[in-house]
C-alpha cells in the first residue's frame, strides 16, 4: 500500500467503529463483516469481494497495536497541518505550505532531519519497511551488505572426549568466498565501481505527487556497486560452493545436544559481506562405566557383602587414572561415596565430584566350603539377635 493510501483511507470507517474503539470491538466488527462479505457467501459478487478485501486490510492494521499507533499518528500529523484545506494552501510543486516555506520532503526525512527524530519518515519506515533490519527498522540512507547465512552441522564424540575436551576436524561443503576474486565478485585485475544512479547507497527515491518513495536501485539491484567484468568462476557473486576442513576446539565439559558457535565460519556473504556463523551440535556417546549429573561424574562399583560389613578400600577409575575409595565398616548397599574434584572440568576452573555408588554383587553359585561357612555365619547372625526385617511391614 502506498503512503497516500495510508492517509486517505479511513480504516475505522471501513469496520464501522469509532477511532477510540477497543481491540475487542474491532475484532467483533471484523468477524461480523468478514462473515457477511466472504466470497464463499457471495459467489460472483465482485463488490462484496472488494469490500471483503478492504475490511481485511483495515483489520490487519487496527488489530496490530504497533501498526495502529503508527497509522493514528500519521493521520494526526497530516490532519493538524491542514493539508488540502483552506488557509495558506499546499503547493506540492513549489515545495511550500503557505508562506512558511514548508517542504513535504522534511516530513519523510528528506529535509535533513536526523533518523529517529519522530518525523513521518520514521512512521512510514515502520509501516512500509517493517522487518527490513534489526528491530524492524528501515535502512534509509545506506545499503548494508548482505551477511551470509548461518550453517549448522553435527559431530559425535566419545564420552571422555566431551568431558575432557578435544580438537576435531570438520569437513563442510558450503558457500565460501571465491578464491579467484577473493569475494569481490569482479574479475581479477578489475574492481567493482560505485553505482552512479544511487551513489552507492543501493536505494533510489522518486516522487509521486506530494509523496516521496524509496526503493532498491534497479541498476545495482540494491547492492550499491556495479561489476562490469564479473569473475568467471563465481559469476559476480563473490561466493562459490567448496569443500573445506576446519578444526574445532570442543571445550571440556560439553554436554550432549549442546551447540558450539564459531563466528564467521558459516556461509560467505555476497561480494565480500560478512560470513554467517557455524553452529556445531555435539552428540555424546554413552560410556560403559561413567554417567553424568551436571558437573559430577557417577559410577557404580560392585562389592561383596563382607566388604560392606567389615569395610575395605577399593580402586575405582576416574577420567585420569585410578583412585582408592575407602568403604567404612557397616556401609549400606546403595550408599553414595563422594570423591571431590574428580568429576567434569568446569569452565570457571576446578571440577565437579565423582559419585561412587556401592552395589552388592551376589554370587550365583558357591562351592561346598563357602556354603557351609555361610550357613554357620547365618546361625551366628541369628543367635546375635540381628533381624534384617525387624520393624519392616509391621513385623
From TrEMBL:
Zinc finger (CR-type): 165-243
UniProt keyword Repeat present: yes
Binding-site residues for Zn(2+) 2, renumbered to this chain: 195, 198, 217, 220
Highest taxon of the lineage: Bacteria
Gene Ontology MF, one: zinc ion binding
Compartment(s) where it occurs, according to its Swiss-Prot or TrEMBL record: Cytoplasm
Cofactors named for this entry: Zn(2+)
Keyword vocabulary terms for this entry: Chaperone, Cytoplasm, DNA replication, Metal-binding, Repeat, Stress response, Zinc, Zinc-finger
Main location: cytoplasm
Biological processes per GO annotation: DNA replication; protein refolding; response to heat
Residue positions binding Zn(2+) 1: 178, 181, 231, 234
Cofactor descriptive note: Binds 2 Zn(2+) ions per monomer.
Gene3D superfamilies registered for this protein in UniProt: DnaJ domain, Heat shock protein DnaJ, cysteine-rich domain, Urease metallochaperone UreE, N-terminal domain
Record-linked InterPro entries: DnaJ, DnaJ_C, DnaJ_domain, DnaJ_domain_CS, HSP40/DnaJ_pept-bd, HSP_DnaJ_Cys-rich_dom, HSP_DnaJ_Cys-rich_dom_sf, J_dom_sf
SUPFAM superfamilies: Chaperone J-domain, DnaJ/Hsp40 cysteine-rich domain, HSP40/DnaJ peptide-binding domain
Annotated ranges, domain J: 10-75
Span of domain CR-type: 165-243
Region (Disordered): 134-153
Gene Ontology cellular component annotations, sorted alphabetically: cytoplasm
CXXCXGXG motif repeats: 178-185, 195-202, 217-224, 231-238
Summary of the function given for this chain in its UniProt record: Participates actively in the response to hyperosmotic and heat shock by preventing the aggregation of stress-denatured proteins and by disaggregating proteins, also in an autonomous, DnaK-independent fashion. Unfolded proteins bind initially to DnaJ; upon interaction with the DnaJ-bound protein, DnaK hydrolyzes its bound ATP, resulting in the formation of a stable complex. GrpE releases ADP from DnaK; ATP binding to DnaK triggers the release of the substrate protein, thus completing the reaction cycle.
Protein family (similarity comment): Belongs to the DnaJ family.
Subunit structure and binding partners: Homodimer.
Domain notes: The J domain is necessary and sufficient to stimulate DnaK ATPase activity. Zinc center 1 plays an important role in the autonomous, DnaK-independent chaperone activity of DnaJ. Zinc center 2 is essential for interaction with DnaK and for DnaJ activity.
HAMAP family, alphabetized: DnaJ (MF_01152)
Protein name per the record: Chaperone protein DnaJ
Species name: Rhodococcus koreensis
Lineage: Bacteria, Bacillati, Actinomycetota, Actinomycetes, Mycobacteriales
Record gene name: dnaJ
